[in-house]
Amino acid sequence: MARTFDYDLFVIGAGSGGVRAARIAAMAGAKVGIAEEHRVGGTCVIRGCVPKKFMVYASEFSQSFKMAEGYGWSKSGATFDWARFLEAKDIEIARLSGVYVTNLQNAGADLAHARAELHDPHTVKLDDRDFAYSAEKVLIATGARPSVPAGIPGIELAITSNEAFHLPNLPESILIVGGGYIAVEFAGIFNGLGVKTTLMYRGANILRGFDNDVRAHLTTEIERRGITVILGCEHLSLEKTPTGIKSCLASGHDVETEVVMYATGRDPYTAGLGLETAGVAINQKGAVVVDAYSKTNVGNIWAVGDVTDRINLTPVAIREGAAFAETEFRGRPTSFDHEAVASAVFSQPPIGAVGLSEADARHKYGKVDIYRQVFRPMKATFYGGEERMLMKLVVDAASERIVGCHIVGADAPEMIQMAAIAIKMGVTKSQWDETCAVHPTAAEELVTMREKYVPPELAMNG
Ligand SMILES: Cc1cc2nc3c(=O)[nH]c(=O)nc-3n(C[C@H](O)[C@H](O)[C@H](O)COP(=O)(O)OP(=O)(O)OC[C@H]3O[C@@H](n4cnc5c(N)ncnc54)[C@H](O)[C@@H]3O)c2cc1C
After folding, report:
1. pTM metric for this prediction
2. Per-residue CA distances from 31 to 6, 254, 272, 329, 416 (Å)
3. pLDDT tens-digit profile of 45-61?
């Protein structure tokens, strides 16, 4: 006789991936349970993309005020109220989290505000109940957590992005450690809000994995805006002082700041989940190992989103969750294609990128053609700003397909969404160039780059 279960699907984690999967499965008629140990919405809504973007918006006004004078406005004398901003931000985050709860309820899923743990592949125990639920299928969607390196004396004095959203006061100064997008974004936020900001990274250049021109260009631009960038340097120790934290650096210098923030990476959140008991395989980083359909090595367990450490972005977690639910509950086998996923860095100025960097494209295709423009955007020339925009296309010389597009400058994240459609469709450079420019915009540069770019070092060699 077939075994009966309390649930057709139990989802652990009500973040981007879990909520999407739960809703689709429930709307397809499945009996769905979902557990969330913190707040519904997950990292993106509560302590990631959304509050971060509000902070970016808040911090960008200082640059706008500067530009405004060049456009004829008088000095505004505007001041920023951190407490008022935090209150408004928290109200909006609570509203959004509430929308997620309503959507789950409207879909017919049972939501439990509790921590869940697997006792065996079909049994989920919630920490607030003394009984366990049985589920035919289980989806692990528990996300990731900030990771801070162990072994640095005083490291417990440092905050992570989780705490940066709730600082009791806006500090006078901050040292941000890390070179990834979260470090760079928070450096822009604090700098824009008037905090003396230092960004320190142990590598030779920030934003590993991005195109090298983008990395170099952004470093110049954020330094131009007043951020001190220290590269190739690490912490030896952190010490509390009466006014803040003294950072002893490997370079032999000390830096004293009111706050130190670590943004040195995130680890899949698999600890204490019962994966070992249930027999679910994880890799060396602790990420759940899955196939193209997000299925684990255990036949009735799937995993999506950051906990699988594929591409750790909200829309990817959502698409993985949707693909799982389409496959398992709507009878439409669907796997999410991780190729050419566009992404943005909300640094100041921001970045939009899709496809391969020049280096990766050379590695993959051998011969590539580069089209590249660095220019002062119209808005800056008028007010006397020195900032520059970068636009770069990477083309596979053999097929003439555009395989990478990289933009640094105002509105880059908005532009890249459109570019991504064409690139995903396999557009060639000549098809791209058939598109007539929109004038006057910065984006028109994208479709008017006709001359191949030859890097100076290659030009010199003939
Ligand atoms: C500061 C920051 C900025 C970011 N900015 C962007 C951005 O601009 N764009 C972008 O695309 N991505 C961004 N991201 C990444 C994005 O937030 C994640 O990729 C996305 O949230 C992953 O979704 P998920 O469903 O895998 O996990 P999450 O959204 O993290 O959800 C997992 C949920 O599971 C819950 N949970 C964990 N364990 C248990 C358990 N045992 N029982 C019950 N509940 C549990 C957690 O509390 C959490 O709510 C950012 C991340 C951070 C930290």
Report:
1. 0.96
2. 8, 58, 26, 11, 39
3. 999 999 999 999 999 99
b/e burial code for range 264-290 (CB count within 10 A of at least 16 → b)? bebbbbbeebbbeebebebeeebbbeb
- How much distance in Å is there from the Cα of 447 to the middle of ligand 1? 36
State which ligand 1 atom lies nearest to the alpha carbon of 49.
Answer: 5
Query: Measured between alpha carbons, how far is 143 from 270 in angstroms, rounded to an integer?
Result: 8
Q: How far apart are CA 235 and CA 223, in angstroms?
A: 21
**Residue 352 near ligand 1, beta carbon < 6 Å:** no
Classify burial at 240, counting beta carbons within 10 Å of its beta carbon; exposed 0-12, middle 13-18, buried 19 or more: exposed
Task: Give the residue numbers marked as catalytic.
Answer: 439
Q: Are 8 and 137 contacting, i.e. CB atoms less than 8 angstroms apart? A: yes
Checking DSSP bridges between strand 32-35 and strand 7-12, what pairing results, if any? parallel
Between the CA of 197 and the centroid of ligand 1 the distance, in Å, is 26
Report the alpha-carbon distance of residue 179 to residue 20 in Å, rounded.
31
In the DSSP assignment, the letter for residue 446 is G
Tell me the three state secondary structure of residue 395.
Answer: strand
Query: For residues 87 and 401, is the Cβ–Cβ distance under 8 A?
Result: no
pLDDT in tens, 5-21: 999 999 999 999 999 99
Q: Which residue has the tokens 């320190």?
A: 200
Residue type, 320: E
Determine how β-strand 402-408 pairs with β-strand 235-240.
unpaired
- Cα separation, 36 vs 38, in Å, equals 6
Q: Is the CB of 305 under 6 A from ligand 1?
A: yes
| Spatial CA neighbour of 19 closest among 141, 144, 145 | 141
Ligand 1, atom 8: nearest CA belongs to which residue? 49
Q: Is 404 in the pocket of ligand 1 (CB under 6 A)?
A: no
Other CB atoms within a 10 A radius of the CB of residue 166 amount to 12
CA 437 to chain centre: 30
CA-to-CA distance for 118 and 300, rounded, in angstroms?
12
- Give phi and psi for 281, each to the nearest 5: -80, 135
Index of the ligand 1 atom closest to the CA of residue 308: 26
Distance of alpha carbon 443 from alpha carbon 445, whole angstroms: 5
Residue 31 in contact with ligand 1 by CB distance below 6 A: no
Q: Residue 1's pLDDT is what?
A: 58
The answer to whether the CB of 15 is under 6 A from ligand 1 is: yes
Here the tokens at position 176 are 């941000």
Q: At residue 3, what is the residue type?
A: R
